[in-house]
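TICKET #2291
ISSUE: user wants both folds in one file
ATTACHMENT 1:
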Amino acid sequence: MTAILVTGGAGYIGSHTVRHLMEQGHEVVVLDNLQTGHRGAVLTPHFYEGDISDAALITEIVKKHRITAAVHFAALSLVGESMKFPTKYLEANTVKSQLFVHALVDNGVKQLVFSSTAAVYGLPTQVPIPEDSPTHPINPYGLSKLFIEQYLQMMDTLHGLKWVALRYFNAAGASEDARIGEAHDPETHLIPLVLQTALGQRESLSIFGNDYNTPDGTCVRDYIHVRDLADAHARALQALENGKPSGSYNVGTGQGYSVLEIVEAARRITGREIPTILAPRREGDPDVLVAQVDKIAADLGFTAKHSDLETLITSAWNWHSQLSC
């Protein structure tokens, strides 16, 4: 049994990954400052409320639990907020992550899986997007994550830290038993917004532009179920344990759904009307963002198994519905 430290384990993707790792028999320790996470989503008894930049706390956790690997989710992740407060994002995501990584290395932890993002690519030069595409982030959030990937490369060279960075596309869905799901404040992700509108918690859903170069004019995105994301993290940890070299991987499905496809599927699954209004396009929104997924399939043996549209929306609907009861 491996002892794994998960930062941000009270968050959406983090809590699902904690559960998955526990089901595999690992001892999982969570560190979260609960700024955006939820204490009730933490299913392990080993929980610490604190900051990733607290080297003394990291040292205490690593020594007490004999941590051998870490999964690093803790970060601010709102693109719009990052545009307004770039320094806040670089400090919280990049600077604090550097301090966290140093504390791990100083205490002998040499394996790290890092929660990165497709935002490191910026506006793609080709679709599906391969991992060797140019990385030109167009917002401070993506930049803050890219900086960490580059820093991890240096820490591998200097200290032998082995790492995997997982570049997510659009996370969605909830646990099969509706025990944990997606709850952000403010909520910015499409599927939760659609379902909140279905529940009457919002008057309508804003569709930002219908003149994109896509079949129905709305943006197309690659949606990956959070259960699949959790599996990708577990496979990345196992790859590092097996001696695989460090590197970055896309985590997606290789296909996309448009905004209108999501809305229509949600109407069918929920049986609700889901009113929509057309709003102006958002600056910097690409027409299509879809992952090329050959590399992660070949190296980590990962393919998405729960990311069909029906499962994505039904699992999320079951979770949101029981919340509103």
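ATTACHMENT 2:
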Amino acid sequence: MRTIDLHTLTGAYALHALDDEDRAAFEHHLRDCPSCAQEVRELAATAVRLGIAAATPPPPALKDEVMRRIAAVRQEPPPTAAPARSAVRRAGAARLPRWALAACLAAAAALGGTTVWQYDRARDARAEASRAEQRTQRIAEVVAAPDARTRTEALGGGARATVVVSQSRDEAVFAASGLAEPPSGKVYQLWFDDGGTMRPAGLMDPARGSGAVLMEGRVGDAAGMGVTVEPAGGSERPTSAPLALVEFPV
């Protein structure tokens, strides 16, 4: 076991992020440390709530589509020895007349612009995936922080909201489940409640009524948070009555 303070591993243990050696040492420590055991139970329950909040049911047609594709996709034939590459090139070049070679070159030139466009799209997709991975990592770090505290409130229409706050990280995570999709051209906007003054804290995906969001900005002296429906792109100040007002857990 490396020189690690075992009391700091509660979050990583609750998220199953320890290797075999550290997990065995922490479980041995857990048997004699009631405070760590309690903290692990609380963090594990929070992780479950966040997972439930972010979960979305698969579309009803998904199973039929998977089965259809299984039946339609041909099994790959057994591998066979390929002829020498140089021989293939010579045979192909001999069969292609000059006009066909010219047509191939023209098509390759025409597709050049499409290739560049596809490359740019792929690069943008990789960048967005990297940003999403970083946001997910930060959400996990807030939930797993040793001082993470959680509060869950029931919202209207059967929706629920969960807030996780870490004072040491000065960050908060908001998770919702069961929220109806906002009206067209509108988004859900999050706010920090600074003693009655609402400070913007980011937007939720308008297409999802569920999910976990790392609130933008520092918690600071905020005593709670709110959710409103705002025009697409968000607002500097709330323009509608709050759907939810949740006090931060102490």
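RESOLUTION: both attachments delivered.
EXTRA DETAIL ON ATTACHMENT 2: Helices lie at 10-14, 20-30, 34-54, 62-72, 85-95, 98-144.
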